Amino acid sequence: MIDFRKVVRSFRFAGQGILDLFRFENNAKVHLLIAGLVSMVGLYLQLSRTEWAIILMQIGLVWAAEAFNTAIEKLCDFVSPSRHPQIKAIKDMSSGAVLILAIIAVVVGLIILGGRLLELFQ
To answer: Where, by residue number, does a divalent metal cation bind (predicted)?
Structure first.
């Protein structure tokens, strides 16, 4: 049998994690701002459902990657508060994963939004 109290509690913890991510992490705030701007442009350009699905998937992937990166960095700092070359490598790779997704998200945004803007001005 499902214990719905545990499910609700888990959602509350997850929600707190999302709030903390956007409240305390500067890069997450930047991603949130960019997502808001992209969403406003998307509304203005009246994107199709498929275009919205692709854009929202990119936004979600970048946010999730930022959350994983933040969690990994916090865990690394907890496990090894002093500088360590392996911890540095782990943190660099983790932030590199976010950068990869962010670059791909920009490319997807340019393809969808840029294409729509070109159509609009021709």
So the answer is: 25, 73
